[in-house]
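PROTEIN DESIGN WORKSHEET
SECTION A - STRUCTURE
LENGTH: 158
TOKENS:
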């Protein structure tokens, strides 16, 4: 990876073996959701870790794998609103299995025709869901149900 590889405005966490790419506007609660996901999975005895916060580099790899890593200089940092930029334990990269888009609650269909969408990112087709911004527990509930549909044989990570 070159130092000039572009990054996107997103965060990433690992929940068990699954990388989640968290996208949304500034102030939508990406960092708070990331922190809640790591804490909740860890409290249930599962591996979970921060990968990136705010700026994430994505790379499509052979075999249909999308990998996320923190932008250079932001490794191991997490913004905690009201507390500042803090150092956290982190993993260097994650294979993205689910994109989570944080949107204003009014923009999310109550009964969507397709609960799990797909998006082509860096040449890789990835599952995608939409969750309400700034409602981390509701977002975790939605992510838990997406996990049950996408990975039915996996443990109850959340």
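SECTION B - SEQUENCE
RESIDUE ASSIGNMENT:
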């Amino acid at each position: 990876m070159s130092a000039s590889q572009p990054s996107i405005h997103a965060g990433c966490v690992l929940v068990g073996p699954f990388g989640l790419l968290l996208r949304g506007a500034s102030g939508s609660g990406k960092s708070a959701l990331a922190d809640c996901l790591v804490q909740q999975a860890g409290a249930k005895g599962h591996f979970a870790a921060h990968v990136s916060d705010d700026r994430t580099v994505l790379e499509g790899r052979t075999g249909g794998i999308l990998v996320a890593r923190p932008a250079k200089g932001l490794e191991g940092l997490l913004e905690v609103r009201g507390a500042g930029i803090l150092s956290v334990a982190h993993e260097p990269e994650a294979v993205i299995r689910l994109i989570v888009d944080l949107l204003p609650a009014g923009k999310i269909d109550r009964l969507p025709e397709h609960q799990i969408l797909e998006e082509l990112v860096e040449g890789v087709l990835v599952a995608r869901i939409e969750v309400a911004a700034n409602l981390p527990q509701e977002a975790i509930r939605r992510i838990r149900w997406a996990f049950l549909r996408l990975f039915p044989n996996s443990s109850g990570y959340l």
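SECTION C - NOTES
Strands lie at 8-15, 18-24, 48-52, 55-61, 65-70, 77-80, 84-87, 94-103, 117-121, 124-132.
The CA atoms of residues 119 and 126 lie 5 Å apart.
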